[in-house]
Amino acid sequence: MNRILLIVQPENQQHRQVDFLTSFLEETNSLPEEIVLLVGEDIKSTAIFEGELPEKFLERLQYKTIPSLNNTPNGNTIFEIQNNDHFLISGTKLQLACFLSELKLESESRDIFTACIHETPDQSSFVFHKYTCINSIIRIEQETVERKGIIPASRLLSAKSYRFEIVNPGASKLSDEQKKLLRSEQNDPRKSSADTKAQEGVDFEAVLAHLISQHPRVVETLINCEMSSDKNKIAREEDLVCTMENGDYLFISCKFGKRGTLKELKRLSNATISRNLQPREKWKVVFATRHTKLELAEQQIAEMGFDVHAVSLLNIEAFLTQLNEDNENA
Amino acid sequence: MDKSCFVDLVVIPAGTSLFSQAQLIQTFQRIIPNAQILLHSRLPEKTIFPFLFTAGANICSDDVLSEVLASHEGEVHLFFTHANVEARMKSLNCIVELTGGFPTIWGTHETRGGQHPQRRLLNLSTNTFHSFTQLPEALIKRHLPVDIHRNIRVVWQPEKNRLKVTLTFPKKLNTMNPVQRRTLETHVVASLTKLRSKFGYFSIEAYHDIHPALGTYDVIVARLREHNIYPVE
Questions:
Q1: Which among A223, A240, A259 is positioned nearest to A320, based on CA atoms?
Q2: Looking at residue A134, what is its pLDDT?
Q3: A139 and A159, same structural domain?
């Protein structure tokens, strides 16, 4: 591999681009001679790349200024494509069109090999489109390389300006009150019509977060996820978000109270759209409730056809295990 | 259809929004009058903009596109700046595989900001610009859904080839209780989502007209921004 080319996008997308670049280089065992960041005239900073790329890649970083979108194209070649260049598809659609048009021009005058690479929509694989041009005849070969590393939800939510706490599985401990709530759910589950105190709702959330964080297939558990407005007021608040070993994300809403199951299920059925959770294929929405309401929730999910899972403190472990098995068998 | 009589073939990949498809067909028909235009798509017929059935373009699957390309000898053009990357690369690779060469690549070029924002069709091989044919408002209005929420205002912008959709919130929003406010917000956003899924996400610019004096203004605005709905210009 001669060069990796990547068009730098605006700053709010650069964390994501660093993840894309790093995981591509690591998972394909690629160490190109140069990693060329193509920086538009209108891009203000590339500091996120310098701050987050591993040292071994930083040494190979090169910068090339390209025209801003308003001036693209300007009749000049933008990329100056070299043999064995690998373009990680980035930038705008027009910039990819410019790259391919430039490649067309190159292929008419000399033999050249180039690859364009992008992720699948669920981010589970890299797709290589390899173009070999010999005597002006082009041969295309496609290859899909499965991606092994996963991006934790904390990275995705940070990019969307969420704040949260990460549960440390080694240090997570339950308070006496929380242990009591867990024991009572295990031995004598709260009746579906019984009242609850506000603090019990908070404890329920903490117990669930603790149990999830201890599961061997869970790689990260986030609690108290909040998105703030420009004036620092809370605009959204989510209970729990966790990242699974297979790269799936769980969006979990906790409701220990006795009312509002159907209303909450309706709200959750739109969660991936209303929260614009991406990649959509990877997000699973979960409703956590007291054990005696689990059956009712499952029934309502089935009747209404909601794409939501229901869990309680008693079945959460089995649910997480089953989820991974289902994915492995899929 | 006798394909050999066509000198040029224009391929538009699947996933290009319905308004774009309609506009591209009309524009290419004007620029390359003899061209055969193919929408490379596997969409079921009911999801196709009815306009396309009478527009003079053919909707074709992978197999049909391969068949056409195999017997085609003229220039192949590919519109490359709408639709997702998979769909675009699929159309491109199909062309490369069957012709052994790259097509002439076209795209939409937009200049933003400044006093004269422009949106033009660009032939990247020759670096020549062409104006887009504008779709008539009557055509768009005919295909708008009838059940758009009453708090949604829709205006056709022919120069942008997009609908401008404004979520209008009443002045009394400040005096409504939180549940009423949230319900209204949910319903108008749902109605907008429906429009986006019918016409394609990029066919619609979405705005809201919430007054900044509203007590919970910045909280609602932050939520709406998540859906790419911005304060009205």
A1: A240
A2: 96
A3: no
Quote the CA–CA distance of B186 and A144 in Å, as a whole number: 40
Share of chain A above pLDDT 70, in %: 94
Our CA angle for A287, A274, A16, nearest 5°, is: 100
Last residue of a domain, one of B133, B154, B170: B133
DSSP code string of A30-68: ---SEEEEEEETT----HHHHHHS-HHHHTTEEEEEE--
Which residue segment(s) compose the domain that A170 sits in? 153-329
- Subunit contact A72:B109, Cβ cutoff 8 A: yes
| B110 in the same domain as B208 | no
Name the pLDDT band for A221 (thresholds 50, 70, 90): very high
Helices (H), A62-197: 93-109, 153-159, 176-187
Q: How far B110 CA sits from the closest chain A CA (Å)?
A: 7
CB count within 10 Å of CB B90 equals 20
Question: CA–CA separation, A179 vs A206, rounded Å?
Answer: 10
Question: B87 CB near a chain A CB, below 8 Å?
Answer: no
Of B133, B155, B190, which residue sits at a domain end? B133
Q: Give contacts of B97 with chain A, Cβ < 8 Å.
A: 140
Overall average pLDDT of the A87-102 stretch = 94
Considering only CB atoms, which chain B residues are within 8 Å of A97? Answer: 80-81, 105-107, 124
Put simply, the answer to whether A231 touches B218 (Cβ < 8 Å) is yes
User: Structure pTM?
Assistant: 0.78
**Greater confidence, B160 or B226?**
B160
pLDDT at B2: 47
Residue of A nearest to B125 (CA): A101
Would the pLDDT of B115 be above 90? no
Q: Are residues A304 and A176 in the same domain?
A: yes
Number of cross-chain residue pairs from A and B with Cβ atoms under 8 Å apart: 109
Mutate to test the interface with A, among B224, B226, B229 (most CBs of A within 10 A): B226
Residues A157 and A140 in one domain: no
Same domain, A12 and A160: no
A142 with A165, same domain? no
Residues A198, A302: one domain?
Answer: yes
pLDDT (tens digit per residue) in A272-307: 666 667 777 888 999 999 999 999 999 999 988 888
